[in-house]
Amino acid sequence: MAFRFWRRVQLFPGVTLNLSKTSASLSLGPRGAKYTIGPRGTRATVGLPGTGLFYTVQNPGRGKSRSATARPQPDRPSVPVRDRLTLGFFKRLITPADEAAFIDGLRALHGDDEAEALTQFEKAPEQADARWIAGLLRLKREELDLAEAHLQAALAQVEGLGRLYAKYGIQATTHLTVTPEVTAHIGPRERGTRLALAELHQLRGETAPARAHLEAVLAQTPDDVVVKAALAELLLEAEPLPPETADRIVHLAAGIENETPVHAALLLYKGRALRALGLDEAAVATFTQAYRRKQDRPEELLRQIRYERALAYAAVGRRSDSRRELSAIYAEDPGFEDVATRLGVR
Question: What is the pLDDT of residues 81-102, one digit of tens each?
Answer without folding.
Answer: 344 455 654 465 567 899 989 9
